[in-house]
Design brief:
By secondary structure, the protein is an alpha+beta fold. Helix content is 39%, strand content 20%. Strand 1 and strand 2 form a beta hairpin. It starts with 6 loop residues before the first helix and ends in a 17-residue tail after the last helix.
Length: 168
């Protein structure tokens, strides 16, 4: 993985990609002299576009997945549906405003951009924790593991599109 141009985001993307079992290279150069918002959101959008293209018609994938991940005192649940419909419920309260120089509110912007571009429903819920860094690590690890499970081929699906409508 290369740099998206935002140190904390690079750290989180490394966790996400490792836990998803994906191979991803990111090159980012944004207007970080203003702030990190556009770079973080645009990275999520591009990641979503790439995943959507890679999945094609989603034939044979598991489609649904959820993961609950601990990171020390933090515990986070992420549930996803690769449905073609984007929706995000991001219920992660109690974060400090910043982790280092990174604005923690940008994590929801990354996830929303990703979900919108990929056509994925994502629910993120913090169940426990008070260390913002640990909570956000758990978010990205759980999202990675849920993506790994939902994009995996389902042997029982026999190459079918995972929908009663026959299309996603």
């Amino acid at each position: 993985m290369r740099s998206a141009g935002v140190g904390f985001l690079d750290h989180m993307l490394t966790l996400l990609v490792k836990n998803a079992g994906f191979d991803m290279t990111v090159y980012g150069k944004g207007d970080t002299y203003v702030d990190d918002h556009h770079t973080v959101e645009d990275t999520g959008i591009v990641f979503g576009e790439v995943l959507k293209k890679a999945l094609g018609d989603k034939r044979g994938i598991a489609r649904y997945a959820d993961r609950m991940i601990p990171m020390d005192e933090a515990l986070v649940l992420v549930a996803i549906d690769i449905s073609g419909r984007d929706f995000v419920l991001y219920d992660v309260s109690g974060l400090k405003e910043k982790v280092g120089t990174f604005d923690t509110e940008l994590v929801s912007e990354f996830i929303r951009g990703f979900a919108r571009a990929a056509g994925i429903t994502i629910h993120v819920k913090k169940l426990a924790g008070d260390n913002s860094h640990h909570i956000l690590e758990a978010v990205f690890k759980a999202l990675g593991r849920a993506l790994r499970d939902a994009t995996a081929l389902d042997d029982r699906a026999e190459g079918e599109i995972p929908s009663t409508k026959g299309v996603l």
